[in-house]
Amino acid sequence: MGWALLFLAVAFIAGVLGFTGVAIAAAGIAKIIFFVAVALFIISMVASALRGRPRDLL
Q1: In the prediction, which pLDDT does 48 show?
Q2: What distances in angstroms separate CA 50 from CA 15, 35, 45, one per listed residue?
Q3: Among the listed residues 14, 58, 56, the one whose alpha carbon sits nearest the alpha carbon of residue 35
Q4: Residue 17 sits in which domain range?
Q5: By the 8 A CB rule, do 4 and 51 touch?
Q6: What's the distance, CA 6 to chain centroid?
Q7: Contacts for 46-50: CB closer than 8 Å, 24+ residues apart
Q8: Residue 56 belongs to some domain of the structure
Q9: pLDDT score, position 25
Q10: Residue 30 located in a structural domain
Q11: How far, in Å, CA of 41 to CA of 27, rounded?
Q12: Checking CA distances to 20, which of 3, 11, 13, 50 falls within 20 to 30 Å?
């Protein structure tokens, strides 16, 4: 779940930079990073849901 939240944060930051024009020179790269991060977020959430609740080791 931690990785999924990290990817979501990266996606939001890349989206802000890519879609608002703050960094015009890097807008194309930011858009690519945004979509990659969103895809990784979705994959992480699906993997977390399929794995289920982790067992206690102790």
Answers
A1: 84
A2: 28, 23, 9
A3: 14
A4: 2-51
A5: no
A6: 6
A7: 48/1, 48/4
A8: no
A9: 64
A10: yes
A11: 21
A12: 3
